[in-house]
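Good morning C.,

I know you're traveling, so I'll keep this short. The sequence:
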Amino acid sequence: MIMKAREFSFKTIKIWRVGEESGEPYSIIYKAGVSENTVISFQYYEDLFDIGYKATLVLNERGQNLPGTMPIQGFEKVTVELTDYKGDDREYEFRVWKVGNRIEKERSRSYTLGLVSAALLANEGIFVNRVLEGTPTTIVGKLLREYFKVSDAQMKLQESVNSMKIIPASKSPFSIIRDLQAKTISAGAEPKTKTKAEVSSGASTVSSDSPGNVSQAKGTAGFIFYQDFDGFHFKSIDSLVSTSTDKFNGSGPVASYTYQAANVDATDAQNDRKIMEVEFKNEIDLLKKLRQGAYSSLCCFFNINTGKYEEYVYKLSDMWDNMAHLGAQKKLPQGQVTLSQYPTRILSTVVNHENWYNGTDIASNEDSEKPGDFTDYQKQYLLQSIARAGILFNQQLTISVTGNLDLRVGNKIEVKIPNQIPHAEKENAGSFDPEHSGIYLIRKITNIFDNRTKECDTVLELIRDSIGYEESNVK
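The tokens, ready to paste straight into the viewer:
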């Protein structure tokens, strides 16, 4: 029998009492062929910007009362085993964090179990107070190994170059990593240390009303930390966006999907690369980007060790070619180039190169040939990470596709949307929309398993920083 692309089947769903996970489960909530009506639906979530995968399990009980007799109090282990249409088995493991939507009836009760990864719950009760040092990648690895017992095989951590030393001040491990994201510079974008002469000669006027001069901030920075079905990831935004194994060590799309109108044709039902719905959530928000300083920002740096005051301006138009991009457009649109000529956000910060340096020489990475091990890299990441993250959401697209359990957040997929121009003009224009088709980054995944219809759909929230398919008309 040939299965349809949306078909799946549950095998078992089990729950254990807290502290008894090594033994037999307290209850087998679902077993294929035995309790068909117990499970209504199961939804699994991953989010690139929300650490820890999550799920909801909607149950309709007849004959047992797990919330009352077990009872469910939180942190219970739950496993869900299922088979997709290709015959591949999946097993998901969670901890209960919530019971909601409970409705009591005469002979049954329905409720929803909120499920999350065990690490997400454990993180809430961990407070780090010891000094941490090394590159951000090294620190992330230490936190995952020591506090969550994560194996090396479950960690996909990209190398970074800027060493640092921090006092966490009772923050949780995931909060510490969140703080590190914007401060991390990838090995592929290692900052060039400026000499005194270069700093002095790099001056340029900020605006017609600014009497002072500023230096230009260069480079790219910014990482993202997330957990998916396969483990934990700490990767640069440029690495996630890059489609080639260039200096950012990127990768190409893992799948290609084509939008087509739904039909009930038997052959079409076996198509596992079909987009069923398309919704463009957001396209171009110049006011928001300007207020965030995504195109151009000015930062005032005060060196607390020397009393030196400097201003640096960052223009996205000057650094566009140094970043990885998903769309086919070759450059920043002319309108955004114009808007990037003057900073739209002003920041200030204190630079402290001597904080962790006990020597008698100069610790600065700009004023010494032998700087300290833990110098202050704010000039190399502060404005750069704001700009890099600011343009990541230039285009946001949500699509619904036939269930694909192999997809992960952080993957890239190719989206093909038919060209909507009149048929007579289509021959020269091509079959697909030249600007809105193309490669997108998966920001969020929702796998929806309906036990009543035995069908699975995957909803993907996609983002990218530039538009265009094979060639863009952006000027």
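Safe travels,
E.
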